[in-house]
């Protein structure tokens, strides 16, 4: 069937409500945020209407550069770790029976139902010195005395990977479940080992899906807010935490709005890139 373009006004009615919700809850708040980002901060007050690019000029300062580079590096590292763990896990999951697949998918959905606060404080307890996993390692004779692994960069990475891992699997699962098993069989027939066949045959076929998954997890980790505060130190705070710090504790709403605008635009560009990659993949399959 060929889709025909809308011919009259009534043809646009099905998208009227979604468009109204998008405008009410995204376009209008984003417009207000853009307006505040060019306002002038008043000493001893809040801000006053004006037009200045000084808030965006602060993006060129070493402080903002350090926070931005850490946020981008942390998001990229979380994405890579999720793919390194999620790709073989999802591939083996699709090779299990239907009941086992349903069990693991329900377990992953259960992780998604957990609040970020619960995840943060649970990992802060597991990585603490008094009641953490280091006490188990001492009991097993692997360590001499218990140690505290939180707060720290490793704790932040652990929490973010734990939280993003279900998203990684759920994005990869449809593509891996549709993968033709004859590809592995042909590679094995030609003398490839299972590991070599997976690396040289399966991964190249899934490269667009892997790239789209990387971008999705990257966006998720880039907006991390609570876990860096609960599991990390101030030097491990991401750009999202800095936005809240500037808006609430530093009373610098224009600079916080400018950083928020930057985050929204960066996320939209990454989402558009992911959609473009998925669209090209569908066209290639057709």
Describe the structure.
This protein is mainly α. The protein has one domain: MetI-like fold (Orthogonal Bundle). Helix content is 71%, strand content 1%. The protein has 13 helices and 2 strands; from the N terminus they run H-E-E-H-H-H-H-H-H-H-H-H-H-H-H. Strands 1-2 form a two-stranded antiparallel sheet. Helix 10 runs antiparallel to helix 13. The radius of gyration is 23 Å and the shape is globular. The two termini are 15 Å apart. The C terminus is likely disordered.
Give the overall shape.
globular
pLDDT < 50 stretches: 282-286
Number of beta-strand segments: 2
Q: Widest sheet: strand order? A: 1-2
Query: What is the fold named in CATH at topology level?
Result: MetI-like fold
The amount of helix comes to over 70%
Q: How many helical elements?
A: 13
Strand content: under 5%
CATH architectural designation: Orthogonal Bundle
User: Which sequence of SSEs, written as H and E, runs from N to C?
Assistant: HEEHHHHHHHHHHHH
Q: Give the number of domains.
A: 1
CATH homologous superfamily classification: MetI-like
């Amino acid at each position: 069937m060929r889709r025909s373009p809308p011919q009259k006004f009534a043809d646009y009615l099905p998208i009227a409500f979604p468009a109204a919700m998008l405008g009410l809850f995204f376009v209008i708040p984003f417009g207000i945020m853009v307006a505040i980002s060019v306002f002038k901060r008043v000493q001893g007050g809040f801000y006053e209407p004006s037009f200045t690019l000084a808030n965006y000029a602060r993006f060129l300062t070493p402080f903002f550069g350090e926070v931005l580079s850490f946020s981008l590096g942390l998001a990229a590292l979380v994405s890579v770790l999720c793919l390194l763990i999620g790709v073989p896990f999802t591939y083996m999951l699709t090779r299990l029976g239907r009941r086992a697949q349903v069990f693991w998918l329900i377990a992953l959905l259960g992780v998604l139902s957990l609040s970020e606060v619960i995840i943060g404080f649970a990992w802060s307890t597991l990585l603490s010195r008094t009641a953490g996993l280091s006490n188990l390692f001492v009991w097993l004779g692997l360590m001499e005395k218990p140690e505290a692994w939180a707060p720290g960069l490793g704790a932040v990475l652990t929490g973010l990977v734990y939280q993003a891992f279900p998203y990684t699997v759920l994005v990869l699962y449809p593509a891996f479940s549709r993968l033709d098993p004859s590809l592995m069989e042909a590679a094995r027939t030609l003398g490839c080992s299972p590991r070599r066949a997976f690396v040289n045959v399966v991964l190249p076929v899934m490269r667009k899906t892997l790239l789209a998954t990387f971008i999705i997890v990257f966006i998720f980790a880039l907006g991390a807010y609570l876990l860096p505060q609960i599991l990390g130190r101030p030097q491990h705070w991401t750009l999202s935490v800095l936005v809240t710090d500037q808006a609430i504790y530093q009373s610098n709403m224009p600079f916080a709005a400018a950083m928020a605008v930057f985050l929204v635009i960066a996320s939209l560009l990454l989402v558009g890139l992911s959609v473009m990659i998925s669209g090209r993949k569908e066209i290639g399959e057709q």
